[in-house]
Amino acid sequence: MKGSEKTTPSRADLVRQRRAQTTQQRIQRAKQSVMRREHRPTVIARGMVVPSASPTRPLPTSKVRRQYYFTLGVSGAELRMPAIPLVNPGWRLLSGMIAILMTLILYTLFNAPTFRVQRIEAIGLQRLTPADLQAVLEITDKPAVTLDLQTLKTQLEAAFPELKNIRLRLLFPARLVLTAVERQPALAWQVNGDTYWIDPEGVILRPRGEAGELPLVTANALPPLMNDSKGARASLNPPEVWGNHTEAKFVQAILNLRQRLSSDIPLVYDGEIGFGWQDPNGWQVLLGNTLDDFEAKMELYQIITEQIQKRGLHPQVISLEYLQAPFYK
């Protein structure tokens, strides 16, 4: 029977079927390609935005070279000079160069003669010399960056009590400049062959150079010291005395007393009985260890002198040590 028989497709039918399958596959691949392009990032190529373009491989980087053109005359011809590459160093190279530069700078600061201190410059000094200062500081040929100005100032204060308002400055490249005020002596104190200077503030100084004619006190002991609570002044050597203080009013009283007396009358100080002098009339005057009531004692001495002269007396000693109980004998 013809209805139940299976028909065999012809060759033309097979060709049409293969073509239909191929077409269907192409359509399917086109759909998939469109879907993939929708998810691709936008890429700029040669100044244009191409949404569907995507780089297939990273482009090699090249160093940009800057070119220079020079015009030759008015003919319009140009001469191209060799290209100059633009260097773009990385952070590692830059850090290495900085480290090398800093090493060279430090080496120069520590070793170059230009940055080594050779001497100290002093401003405001009259009797002290730079040589005196350098003997204490020992700064010759030392790198300027190693100097501690505060330590140097402390050394100067300890070695030279005659200096005040000390200021040290280190100027480029290696200049050490000292600015200070030098104390001026107000009187000379002579004891056991040693001479000390005392300024108006009561600071005991080492004699240096020339200070002119100073009021002189001849003594057998040092003046009362402010920090000598145990009475150790008798055992002090001259270097231990320099820089000590006596009271400023004590110095001022001595200067006032010196003005009251004739210049040819020597002023004497005894560690036990205090100040005194030999009066031209033949008697010795004693004022005591303190001069707190100096003006009152001098007024009292004037009164006692007038009474003695009226009576025609010739005492050996007039003592004003105790203002309320003066006596003569």
UniProtKB/TrEMBL annotation:
InterPro entries named among the record's database cross-references: Cell_div_FtsQ/DivIB_C, FtsQ_DivIB, POTRA, POTRA_FtsQ_type
Keywords: Cell cycle, Cell division, Cell membrane, Membrane, Transmembrane, Transmembrane helix
GO cellular component, one term: plasma membrane
Compositional bias annotation for Polar residues: 1-10
TM ranges: 90-110
Domain POTRA, residue spans: 115-183
Region entry Disordered, spans: 1-25
Pfam families: FtsQ_DivIB_C, POTRA_1
Gene Ontology BP, a term: cell division
Domain of life: Bacteria
Subcellular localization: Membrane
Protein name: POTRA domain-containing protein
